[in-house]
Every structure is written in structure tokens, then in C-alpha cells.
Known about the structure:
Layout: H1 2-32, H2 37-40, H3 43-83, H4 88-93, E1 96-101, E2 107-110, H5 112-116, H6 126-129, E3 145-149, E4 152-159, E5 164-169, H7 171-183, E6 185-192, H8 195-198, H9 207-222, E7 226-231, E8 234-240, H10 241-249, H11 254-261, E9 271-277, H12 282-298, E10 303-308, E11 314-317, H13 328-343, E12 347-351, H14 358-373, E13 378-381, H15 389-398, H16 401-407, E14 408-409, H17 411-417, E15 422-427, H18 438-443, E16 446-451, E17 465-468, H19 475-485, H20 496-509, H21 520-531, H22 536-543, H23 547-557, E18 561-564, E19 567-571, H24 580-590, E20 598-606, E21 609-616, H25 622-628, E22 632-633, E23 637-643, H26 647-665
Helix pairs in contact: 9-11, 13-19, 14-19, 14-20, 19-20, 19-21, 20-21, 20-22, 23-24, 25-26
Amino acid sequence: MKQNLKRTKIVVFILMLLEILAIAAFGVFYYNNFFNFQNLVSISTIYISIAAVLGIDIVFLWVEVIVFSHIRHNADLKAADLVGADIQEAYNFGMIGLVIVDENNVVLWVNELFKERQIDILDVNILEWQPALQDLIGAPPTAVAKVELNTRNYDVKYLADAGLFIFKDVTEYETIYTYSRKQAVVVGTIMIDNYSDLSDNADDSNDVISKVRNALFEYARDYQVLLRRYRSDAYFMICNYESLRKMIEDKFSLLETIHKIGEKEDTPPTLSIGIAHDFPDVVKLNEMANSAIEIAMSRGGDQVVVSRYGQDLQFFGGKSEAQENRNKVKVRVMADSVISLIKNSSDVLIMGHTMADMDAIGACLGMKAICEYCDKNAYIIYDPKLTERKTRGAVTTSFTREEISKIMISPSEALDHVRNNTLVIVVDVHRPSMTMAPKVLEKANKVMVIDHHRRSEEFIETPVFSHIEPSASSSCELVAEFVKYASVNPRVIIPPAYATIMLSGIFMDSNYFKAKTCGIRTFEASMILKEFGADNAEADDFLKDEFEEYTLITKIISTLKTPYYGIVYCIADEDDIIEPATLAKVGNQCMQMRGVNACFVIGKTAVNEVRISCRSDGSVNVQLLAEKLNGGGHFTQSASTFKNVPIDHVESKLLDVLNEYLNDARTGKEK
Length: 671
């Protein structure tokens, strides 16, 4: 069509040019009377000539109209042959539009759907008309593009061999999908974290609790959420996805509202919320919501965990440190459950995390003492290469080679010891990838988890027992409480060598009782260990720095930078391989400086591994920031590890995370 039009334009131009030349020649000859021209041509002859020229032009235009109609008719026949004339009505009924283009993507023909909807695109380049269709050129036949024409939505496919674009009207489908998406069921659970502390007798007339409940129901009313209390401290919620979307955009301001209620209270109230969506079965949604609330509470509470089926968890809030739980009855029940599980197992394997520190090894020794009390064969999974230097020194100093062989085995040997009834106890870590022997976990049927770090999304699958207590300063503290409050007679005995390493673990994780997580329970745990003969002087010696390490710490601190007010970070030299404990000490030293709210220390812990050690005074949730760096840990102490990347890349990543998430991580309690 385009070529025929071009040819017609050329013919018209030549014809007009000839007519102009003829008129000009006639005028010249007539005016100058060349060859007695005026006598040869009369006025009537001139009129006849003009009429003849007009007649020729009219005939020419009529012929061109016939030619173009014939070409269009042929194009229609060709399209009808391609798609089948007998199914044109079916295409119209199915609201399917057909567009045929030439080799230059110029539209040659469209079916009736476009004509009925007054979409005139004949002789238009379809890619210029809808640039989104460019993605279909050269793409597989299954490729689909989405376009919007006159407020209607279309899915478009392209058949290159036929030069055919197929437009399918999906407006009704999109409308139904959008409506169904907005109205999809969302299930959740809301819990008041410290209800027992706020109201010892659970009196509904308690002023703080009343304010919290009023805020809850007011928030539910504003966001069209159905809320029902099923326990004194827990509520069941149900809403649609549109309401959830609005709450997510609002970043669950309910948490901040509850914070304001408790600003002047000795025990400020906080909420934990678990929400599940994007699955058709409400029973499954309820299970997902229960799992989400467990994660929220095991991470210290005061946060929202949103679980979308098949997707990563979303976290909101978490700006308050976990409150210390003084419920000793719960500790006794936990301790009795631990002893019962150990007694009902054939044998026990105990392990901590890779690059094991004093807290991990100390907690392992404490659990071994409980196993010895239960008269169960137990081994600690231990690999010197995966243990920090000072911890290795403490082990070799405290035990002889024969004693070590009776207490500990290597990860490869442990794999051979796993039986159907073997209990694997994991302490100071809950992420399978960070354990000393992940393959042992894969093989074991019974796993127990004891940890003081806030729970991350990665978690050991279906443990038979799980005790995650973020308010504790260390895992050694938790194990010491198990020993103290277990209702067994005679009581569990911890050997002095075990107790000393456990006390050293408490010293390290509590930064000698200066950490924000250090509370009454921490001092009580230390007293328990002293009763069993822990030597605090020796425990302190285990953690003392050598001159070279002290010099290295000073060198790293000298690189200190301040990207934001109250936020500092240090970078170790690219050529230095540094113990993770040393990086932590740099962070602790920085936190001793006035005006520092959070510190991040970057250094290589192996040839192909870079680590960030994060510390905070409680005004910044460094766990939230560490999770954005694929790490995790505690509210005030966390870390992240990177493989096969240079230090400058890690620095850049840290700055990006600070720029995007620092405001979310700040608790508003500047020191």
C-alpha cells in the first residue's frame, strides 16, 4: 500500500509538471504571436483544451481510486485467507483484534474489532503507535506484551512469519483479578508482648492496657480490620488485601501509637503482629500467621512480620529492645523439657556456630554437663579451624588432649554418630548454614535449638524444642538458668572448667556487663557459675588481648569515618586477616566514645571472606541493618558476612543500606 501510494504521488507530480509546462508554452506562443499563433488558435479552442485537461485529470483520479480499492480488496482477501473468513465472527465475539503489517511494520489491515472501537491505525507504523510492542520483535512466539487502548487492556502476541499482531481484550479479566486481589483474605494475630508485666492480675481496668486496647480497636476501625480477642493478651484479625496494603504503606503506625502510650511507663507496652496472605486456604493462612507471630516474638517483639506465601518475610518495626522476662516458672518448664528430651534420646551431639566463640563453646559445655547428669553419651562437635583463636586457646588450656578426645569430635566423625534417636543440640545459633556441621542437621531427626539472637527468616526446620530468648545477654546465661531451675534432685553439676569457660562467654557477649542486654538475669547466671567453681580471673585471661592484637585494634580504629550523625564505621587493611572477635572488640571500643550510637567494623576474616561487625547503644537496631546485608544477630550486636567480594564493595553496600534504612532502624532513643 505504501509503495503504491508513493508511485501515485510521482505520477501525479509528473502529470502536473507536464500540464504546467504546456500552459506556460501556450502562453508564451500566444502572447508573442510566434508563427502567427493567435490566428491559428481561437477562443473556443482554448476552452476546449481546458476542458480536455480537466477531463484527463478526472479520469486519472477515478482510475487511481479504482486501483486503490482493488489493492485494499486484495489485502482483505489475503487476510481472510490467512485467518479464515468463516471465523471472523468468532474473533469478534472473543474480542480478539487482528493487525497485519508489512515488512516495515506498517499496518496493512485490521479486523472489525478495531473499526468498531474507532481505532484507526491503517498505514501507521505499529511500533511507533505502541512502543511496548517492540519487545515482541525477535521474541519467541509465546512472548506477550501488555498495552492499554482507550481505557481497555490488551494482551498482544506477534506471529512474525505472517506479520500478524493478535490483540486479546483482557479488560474484564484484569478487572476481576484486581478486584479479587484487593478482596483476598488476610489473616493475622496480634499479641501484647509484656501483658503479664503490665498487669500482674490481668485486670481489664488497668489504665495502660485499656489505652492499648482502645488504640488497637481504633486502628482496626480505620483500616477496616475485623478484630476479636481470644485471650487476655492476644487478638485474631482478618481483613482484605487492600487494607493490608494501606497498613504496609503506613508502615504499621500502630506500633508507634503504642510506644507513645507507654512513654512515661516503667514497663512500656509493645505489640507483636504476625500476618499471612496470598493463599486461598484460610487454614494454611492461619498456620502461616502463627509462624509469623512466633518469629516476631522470638525476635524480641515490638514488630510486624508479614508472610506472603512463597515469598520472603517482610519485617516492620523492631525498634525496641527485648524486655527481660522474669518468669522463672517458664525457665523451669523449659529446663525440665530439655532434660526429658535428653533422657529419651539414645545419644546427644552438641554444636554451636562456625568461628565458634567463648559463648558458643561455653554453652556447648553447659549442655554437655546436663547430658552427663542424664547419663547420656554426648559429644561436642568441634573443629579447631572453625573456632576463634582465643577460644581454641581456652579449650587447650582447660583440658588435656585425652579430655578433649572424650568431650569433642570432628564434624565428619559426628556425621557417623547420627542415629534415628540421636538428639542434636544447637546453641548460640539458629541458622542451619552457620552451624558447625550443617550435614549433621540434615541427617538428624531430633534437633533442639537454644539461642539468644533475634530469630531470622532462615531457621532450622521443625525442631523438637526451641528456646529463642533475645533479652538474654548470652547463650551461656540461658544454659546456666536451665541448670539452676531444673526441678531435678540431686541438682545438675557443672565442672569448674566448664563453668569458667561459660563465665568467659558471658563476659564476652555482655562486654563485661556493659551491654544493653545485660540485666539481673546476667548477674544471676554469673553467680550460678561462681557457685560451681568458675574462676573469674581465668575467665578474664581467656579474653585478654595480645600486644599485636591491641596494636591492630588501634590501627583499625584510626580509620574511623562518620557518614551520619552518631554513626561511625572502620575499615581494616585489605591485606590483614582478622579474627571476628577482634572486629567485635573494635566495635566495642568505638562504642565507648561519647556521641557514638552505632558502629560498623569491616575486615577480612579469611582470604575470600569479608565481615561486618555491628554494635549499637540501643538507639539503633543494628540487627535490622545487618539483615539488609544478608546477616543477622541481636538488637545491639549483629554481623554480616560476604564471600568473594573486595572490601570497598562491602563498604559501598554498607553505605547504601545506611542511606536507605537508617531512619527505619533508629529507635528515637538517642544516647
